[in-house]
């Protein structure tokens, strides 16, 4: 914890020194950080029990640098230090966690990108490193809510060794971007264990992004992920499909997305999971109200000794049920405030108090089911109340996981987090 | 006004065009042509019975006599039309097929032909399926209900049975071993052992001398073995619950077997993170202090189960298929501490899950391995996977020769009544199937083969009988012994079932 805080403070100080150096998009260096301090009560969390916990969640240090054709993006995620047990988040699953969001890997993102000159109408870029795959929608960490949607693993593929080639036709206001990625299929197994480098290239994705007008974005993507569940290979492959519509204005944001994951081998599908999500936010007098509605199906696996943990991959290629999660979430964020003294104001900090309430109703899709949500959770409706403070320091990105020619779509109007300190790239 | 006039004009013009076109295109009446047609529904008949289907003849300007014939009949099937000749005004006949008891089961296409004078003949293809009679179902003698936890594997010795529990049911974890009195028809729970720090238990087995009860603990990261001293069959005293070491990642299955007089537990260890699946052989010579004597990385992606007999070790290695190892009885120099692989065969479809090496006392044959394939499933409601038969007459060159499939259900664990050549196979939501596996399983007629050339035990009429319980079962394990036949059902508990007879 102290380590995380010290790194965050150091990052903020560095930012104050280099902030003045930031110049145009061709040459810049930016540094920013974020974190959320929050208390969550889940009622019930499982077995009919209410659980209240406090977190220092989403602690990230982000840096971006560019010179000429070349740019780099890096993100250190410190959840491995602050969130080892995971964060209560009804419905979410993945990487061995269930109903708790897993901590992300320490080296969340290190990507190097080469992009052809900005003056051309047809542009290309090539990005390589560890980071986000060209698939799906924005990482939930850069969206209004603190709690993740259930569909995180249906709708994003992250923390992989990846190369992404991209081609963009058109200008900033109207364009089409086609990306293709190669990456390793294995999911992270620990915040401090790296990906299987020898599996690089066993998985692939393609994303088509259409921007008909500024502030409106349509996306369709598809990915083949080889054995994400078992590191050595041999688990089910995932064929994932995503489509979304994203709209932003100065004070409003909306996203509608569909995602689907098929699990199986080659053409033999074993399981299929759907997700539909709609969310939006509006800001008035610096108060931001955000709403999210989601219907997502997830596989249920045998719980380990810690009932919030499951084995990565399905044991014996079997699951104990499929549960459909209907989740409604509302968040109210108060006007941001800065540190009181002039000296500290130089850190470019912003504190945003918020309260977030979620109601989830899990229902078994197949009967008879070995996993019966009402029996397991001890209730048919699960409530979650979270209150806390979001901190942004330095210069924050507006969006994550967008490299090269697609990164240039990120602009100051894509203001979706509560009062994010965003910028135009 | 102008719009009204022009609309009326358009209507009149359209009507005139319609009338004139009708007059211009009216066809001349063609000379009458004669034709006949024939049709019939598909037919399915059971061996040794008679079946029928209606044959319909269509007549177009044809009133003369029509004769019916059929071709393509399988050997042993006779056909009669009633009537075989249709006179003016008649359009239907009844095709009656008599199926002898020795007809090869399967589907063939019959050709029904209708002929008449001065008219082209007509024919129709009629699929005809010969099936076996639905097998008798085994009767339940009694059910010992378990509603607090999901029931997993079972073992029976004398009048006592032991079942493990699995997963999480409500707030209850699968950490209990139930001890049953099975002296009567309905199993009765007499005791329950709680294994500490466990959430899922797998195999349970009593040693051949009846002194030890060994339980596999899968719970990651607290996997291990729980070993109990059986002072009496129903009085289990905990000797050890292993922690840490080679078994920590989770013991998926544990087979207890004696090799050269020493008792061992052959433990299949789950893969966890970057650590692959392994086989760990543990000596139970001092059961209070089990000791690892061998540890091998086996299985892609997992080693699921093993079978030990006559100094040979058979490993179910999932997509790597089935492995055959010498652990002292194979003559290749392998030992319990240094198993030596004799051969390996990738079974069709992979997912090799469990094994039984059949010793047939009726002819001293040891030619066949039965491999359970565990396909994807949703536990409680759906499953998939076939039984694969591997000919191991030559241990160095095993060959898959036959298979058995239950539509809509997948196989799990086996037990055998070897003296009668009966294989009991748990089929999850399909209940239990009992197969007659005596004799040659790799030789069959062309009609009894699967598309890839293996013999199909269903088409060979090898299913002897089945058990379906109350219709809503999910059978994990089966156990046949001189004590009787029992089935562990995840949803319901422990069934005692009438054993099959030859």
Provide a descriptive summary of the structure in words.
The complex is a heterodimer of chains A (425) and B (502). With 425 residues, chain A is mainly beta. Helix content of chain A is 8%, strand content 52%. Chain A has 5 helices and 19 strands. Chain A has helices at residues 2-18, 79-82, 152-155, 342-345, 373-377; strands at 27-46, 49-67, 70-77, 87-94, 97-101, 107-115, 122-131, 160-170, 175-183, 203-211, 216-225, 237-248, 252-265, 268-284, 287-300, 318-319, 321-333, 349-364, 382-394. In chain A, the strands form 2 sheets. In chain A, strands 1-2-3-6-7-8-9-10-11-12-13-14-15-17-18-19 form a 16-stranded antiparallel barrel. In chain A, strands 4-5 form a two-stranded antiparallel ribbon. In chain A, a hairpin with a 4-residue loop joins strand 10 and strand 11 (216-225). In chain A, 54% of the residues are buried. Chain B has 502 residues and is mainly beta. Helix content of chain B is 5%, strand content 51%. Chain B contains 1 helix and 41 strands. The longest helix of chain B has 24 residues, at 2-25. Chain B is elongated and about 95 Å long. The termini of chain B are far apart. Residues 1-28 of chain B have low confidence and may be disordered. Strand 16 (318-319) of chain A pairs parallel with strand 31 of chain B, so a sheet runs across the interface.
